[in-house]
Amino acid sequence: MTPIRCRHCAAPLEDVFVDLGMSPIANDNIPLERAAAMEPFFPLRAMVCGVCFLVQLQDSESAERMFDDDYAYFSSYSTSWLEHSRRYVEAMTERWALGADSHVVELASNDGYLLQYFVERGIPVLGVEPTANTAAVAREKGVTTVEEFFGVALAERLAPEHRADLLLGNNVLAHVPDINDFVAGMKVMLKPGGVITMEFPHLEKLIELNQWDTIYHEHFSYLSYTTVTRIFATYGLRLFDVEELSTHGGSLRIYGCHDDDAAKPETTASRALLERERANGLTDLATYRQFAAGVRADKRQILRFLIDLKDDGKRIVGYGAPAKGNTMLNYCGIGRDIIDFTCDRNPHKQGRLLPGTRIPIVDPEQIDEARPDVVLILPWNLREEVMEQLAHIRDWGGAFAAREPELRLFP
Ligand SMILES: [Zn+2]
Q: CA torsion angle for 115, 118, 124, 126 (degrees, to 10)?
């Protein structure tokens, strides 16, 4: 058998980070007419490279099944994410003095949730978004969108007209199967003197807060600042600044430039984070090898918590249908015997069933009819937003539950 190799540095991949067993594709919600059909399950196993410390999913056939046409994630359905994006646009416009002569390019621009704010300011933009239905919504917002996957080949075609002063990508770096081709493409797309910003969930937080449910098939890489610095350097790009954000349970916003751009010296924040990751063991294989035991303990805690509620005769419904919810429900084996239904504001998800567990996804208004004792918030990163929206469940004595990192009640 040929050894599995690291997606970045091609070293043999030998160490398991965590094995979550067999799982369906997280965003593959099942239409009712397929309720009686079988569905495919794929291994969900994360490995860690002993050379570059890239945590990555082991290759499986799942990649061919993802990102198909009924992809239903529309960024604009989350109000807090829209607000986050608006503030980002304000900050970048000011910091990099962007104006009508600048060019902003976003990779994985989704439904134009972010670029719309540059358009409002009269700053020229280009979105790159391979998913047809989200790209169509973006165009309605006046966001010019190229409907293709990004990599060196596309970058070379776009660069003559669209080289970017600001090249950004939020929650995409971790989701691309070929991270090398993606980063090499960014080198081609970036103007001399231009800036790259990317946001992605921070591996340090995943480990520290036991966020194993953020592992799912679409999420190929789990990234530390150290490893991303290394990957960018391989392609002639240098990270010079970083911010820590609270989004997705703890994300990084990295700032990159051409490696010979003398106008952008490395900040204290950048140096300090590299040092902290080293101190926290992110460049030591032992740290990664210990992670799986905590995941197994967490599964037992989640099941104990839910079984106790059911033994007390409580009715539990879910809120949200995010990928992380599917990882948690499938890994723990939680189905309709515990959760009656879940709900989502996204109408593209309503009327479907969660993959694997087959829990129905309904309109959030059905919570008011069902008057459950407990609403289990699956997107725990949006817990405060959901608790505000559904504050009225307390009128009938309802309570919220969410992982933080242990699953607990928020009365
Ligand atoms: Zn590697």
A: -10
How would residue 350 be classed by pLDDT, with cut points 50, 70 and 90? very high
- On the question of a cis peptide bond just before residue 177, with omega within 30 degrees of 0, the verdict is no
What secondary structure letter does DSSP report for 100?
Answer: T
Residue 187 alpha carbon to ligand 1 centre in Å: 20
In 3D space, the residue among 77, 296, 108 whose CA is nearest the CA of residue 185 turns out to be 108
Query: Is the separation of the CB atoms in 85 and 127 below 8 Å?
Result: no
Q: What is the pLDDT of residue 27?
A: 81
Centre of ligand 1 to C-alpha 234, Å, is 12
DSSP letter string, 229-275: HHHHHHTTEEEEEEEEE-GGGSEEEEEEEETT-TTSPPPHHHHHHHH
Look up tokens 């807090």; give the residue: 80
Percent of the chain residues past pLDDT 90, beyond the cut: 88
What spacing in Å lies between the alpha carbon of 11 and ligand 1's midpoint?
A: 5
Query: Using CA atoms, how far apart are residues 353 and 351, in angstroms rounded to an integer?
Result: 7
**Burial grade of 239 (CB within 10 A; 0-12, 13-18, 19 or more):** buried
Nearest residue to 246 via CA among 400, 105, 375, 83: 83
Which one-letter amino acid corresponds to residue 217? H
Output 402 or 249, whichever has higher pLDDT. 402
Return the pLDDT at 69.
46
Instruction: Tell me how far the alpha carbon of residue 253 lies from the centroid of ligand 1, in angstroms.
Output: 22
Question: pTM here?
Answer: 0.93
Q: Quick one: pLDDT at residue 72?
A: 53
Render pLDDT for 251-284 as a digit per residue (tens, 0 to 9): 999 999 999 999 999 999 999 999 999 999 999 9
Nearest alpha carbon to residue 137 among 69, 76, 218, 66: 76
The span from the CA of 295 to the CA of 155, in Å, is 39
- Predicted confidence at residue 26, as pLDDT, reads 86
Q: Which two tokens stand for residue 194?
A: 């231009």
Ligand 1 centre to CA of 394 (Å) is: 49
Q: How far apart are the C-alpha atoms of 229 and 232, rounded to whole Å?
A: 5
Beta bridge partners of 104: 125, 166
Q: How far is the CA of 148 from the centre of ligand 1 (A)?
A: 27
CB 57 within 8 A of CB 45: yes
Reported as type and span, the H/E element at residue 45 is strand 42-48
Report phi then psi at 303, rounded to 5.
Answer: -65, -40
Per-residue model confidence (pLDDT) at position 65: 61
